[in-house]
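--- STAGE predict ---
source: upstream dedup step, 1 unique chain passed
mode: sequence only
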Amino acid sequence: MNEVQGLRRRVSPSRSHAARRPAALWFLAAVAAAQTPGDAPAEPLPPFPAETAAAMVRLRDGIGSTDDLKAVVEAETAAGRHDVVAWWIETAEPALAGPKAPGPARSAVAGWKRETAKRRAATQDDRVLISKSISRAEGLASRKNYDAARKAVAAAAALLEVVDHPDGMKNLAAVRDRLSKFGGGDADPRDVARDATASSALLESGRARFAGRIEELFTQYETAGCTAGRRVLERAVAAGHAAGWLGDAERGASTTRIRRAARRLEALRRLRLLLRAEGRVAFRLDGAPCIPFAGGEAAGSAESGDAREFRLLPGDRLQMTFDTPISGGDPPMWGVLVSAVLDGKPAPAAVWRQNIAGEPDDPEAKLRPALRGKKTPAKNVLSSVKDEQQKKRIEAAGFVLECPHGDGSQYIAFRPAFFGFEKDLEERGAAAFWLAAVCPKFTLVFATPD
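--- STAGE serialize ---
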């Protein structure tokens, strides 16, 4: 391991200080192609005839035909998976039944859509349950119990995410519009308590129906799903959590279940990532360690290797937690040189976030835009450095890395040959930039764009 020397200085009008850090090794940390879980083919699960599975893949990739959609509609209708049929129609409709599509194709898609809507329509029991839930919200609102009314609205909304009832959606929208004109609070807490007791059976019926129905949707999605189905499930999980029918742990487990199935079923984006950082970096996806290297590297962390690829879904958050700052101090300063190529094009800096939740696996990630580090000639900061030995070291480095801090001051760090790594990446044909932070722990997040 080569010995390198580092300095961190905080530059502000009122004070400055320096802190030394032990020897460190800079390295190229490269992300591997592994996924969580596994790198399985992105195509539907059996039982399917081969031609139906192939038709689904073509429709998913935007190259399907009306005959492909017909094959999927007929196969899934016969299997009784009417939600799946609706999802695949939604997926294919823009390409097969858009304004420029032939008339026969538009007519065929419209016909399948009408028939599927009939099969998915709310049952009489569902309509009664939703109607009573909305009426309860209306009653609470009319008695100026606005907080309780909004909770009742959340329960009705959760049901409407899993049951197809357009009229119910319109009625609920009217209640929401009315509530938007008022503040919070409940005019009569005793009335709210009486309503909760009187409505307990209704609420339990709603909870049970939601639980059963969302499991049906999960089963259908995991069997033959596509992006449209994933979005339905994600909305349903969020609504169930808002209604209090899914706790934090259940929401987290459901989200993980959705996204793990999605990596098997849906088209994925390819991320090629190169990092320059100190120490080791641990990668997490869906709350679990990724395996960035084959050939003996520990799961979830790495410190050297060639560039590899991640397969990511739109919306995926790939977390990278670093264990060694570039300069010590309280708090320390971190710096990472990053180069990311998404689907063959350089990923913009805007996709990078910093997780400030405290712990990298915190389910409630608190993200903010990652700060760009600034490469600055040493001569520009020498006037703020009082110690002559430090000045000489900075002059020898030639450049410093600056990072803004919350109080308006700037932190700087340097190493001998600190910026030679930029040239190394340039020779590899990789566009790179610095991300930096001053904080106790440092976790970067690549937020995969839609």
